[in-house]
Amino acid sequence: MRALPAPLLWMVLKPLQKLLAILLGRSLRKWWVALPDNRRQLMHVWFRRRRWHLAAGLGVTLLILALLLLTHLDESPVTGRLRLLVFSREKYMELAVLTSEAHLEEFAEQLLPVTDPLHQMVEQSVQLLAQRNKDIPEVSKVPWSVHVVESSQINAFVLPNGKVFVFTGMLGAVADVDQLMIVLGHEMAHAILDHSAEQASLSHVVDLLSLILVTAIWALCPGDSLALLGGWAKDKLMELMFNHPYSRKLEAEADQVGLHLAAKACADVRAGPVFWQQLDLVDQVTGSPTLPEWLSTHPSHRNRSGQMDRLIPQALELRETCACPALPPIDPRAVFSKTVHELLEKAKEQGVRGLEGTHEPQSVSTPAGLAVSQNVLASSSKVDWLNKDRVPAVTSPLPAAAGKESQHVLQNTSQQGS
Ligand SMILES: [Zn+2]
């Protein structure tokens, strides 16, 4: 039996710590309420007399805490950003080994054989990304291995130990190998930048501070139901103020570094913004419920596309220094926006004719927007994951994705992200 890695141990102990904080706060409140008036008066006097001692104690504690945090600062590879790492990379690697073993067991029945053309395509892309970026120590020291999972989820994730998991749903959602390289670059960036360790470090510190708040809430709120409500509000506030903005920041950084890795691997980086525009378009026309960005752990598809678009000139410059073959003169971004524009015009015309009662009977049942998106994806990006039975069918240049029902998830769990 192996000992649990420290980050996992903390995850297991977290609910117990919270329960202890609640019990402590609640007991303090009960004790105070039960105290006779004269004893309470005496306590007030005691606190007032020692207020400077108490303030000094608090100051020293804060100083020690600040020193502890400062000694755990670490420089992020590639970007050089300073961040807090409470758990060491080695500890996190142990956790990654456990996690990848669990995933391999979970997906054992759904893994595509290594001889499958889809597996080989992902394998080649990952090896190309790793080979062309081997000057980055975090890339060259990890043995990258690929596992393609037969599942309709549009998702992919990479663990810090170099295990790359790609779902066939994702292979159905990318239009070409360039988009795939950008998605893989993003996921590999999460791994080489130790984003999971960084996120766990932040939530560790936030959780410790939160224990003090939980104790205070349960001690100060007049009743249990109010304390429960206060605790819930505190959780939501911390999520919106710390966890979600931090997660969005890491996603934006992975987009930036992923584009950098893909550019060095000679991908057509201009395909990056198109991928996010495709997803945005699909959301719009299918009316998929999308959370406002501030409620979400990921930036919105539109913002991701916009942010990536701004990084393209720099990525193209980098690509030019890497002895890559010249890019095709036609920009995929221009093709995409032209196709969307033309099809929207066509749909508008059909809509006007439809109002005059001259439209074809079959278009009555098809919302114009849906038809537009189907056409755009079929013609400009060669992906069709919006047809009636939602079978992803990539026509070219990817081998046909053998997906079943396609759902749009691009989700994030504690260890995986898109
Ligand atoms: Zn991500």
UniProtKB/TrEMBL annotation:
<comment type="similarity">
    <text>Belongs to the peptidase M48 family.</text>
</comment>
<keyword id="KW-0645">Protease</keyword>
<dbReference type="InterPro" id="IPR001915">
    <property type="entry name" value="Peptidase_M48"/>
</dbReference>
<keyword id="KW-0862">Zinc</keyword>
<keyword id="KW-1133">Transmembrane helix</keyword>
<keyword id="KW-0812">Transmembrane</keyword>
<feature type="region of interest" description="Disordered">
    <location>
        <begin position="396"/>
        <end position="418"/>
    </location>
</feature>
<protein>
    <recommendedName>
        <fullName>Metalloendopeptidase OMA1, mitochondrial</fullName>
    </recommendedName>
</protein>
<dbReference type="Pfam" id="PF01435">
    <property type="entry name" value="Peptidase_M48"/>
</dbReference>
<feature type="domain" description="Peptidase M48">
    <location>
        <begin position="122"/>
        <end position="305"/>
    </location>
</feature>
<keyword id="KW-0479">Metal-binding</keyword>
<feature type="transmembrane region" description="Helical">
    <location>
        <begin position="52"/>
        <end position="73"/>
    </location>
</feature>
<keyword id="KW-0472">Membrane</keyword>
<feature type="compositionally biased region" description="Polar residues">
    <location>
        <begin position="408"/>
        <end position="418"/>
    </location>
</feature>
<keyword id="KW-0378">Hydrolase</keyword>
<dbReference type="InterPro" id="IPR051156">
    <property type="entry name" value="Mito/Outer_Membr_Metalloprot"/>
</dbReference>
<comment type="subunit">
    <text>Homooligomer.</text>
</comment>
<keyword id="KW-0482">Metalloprotease</keyword>
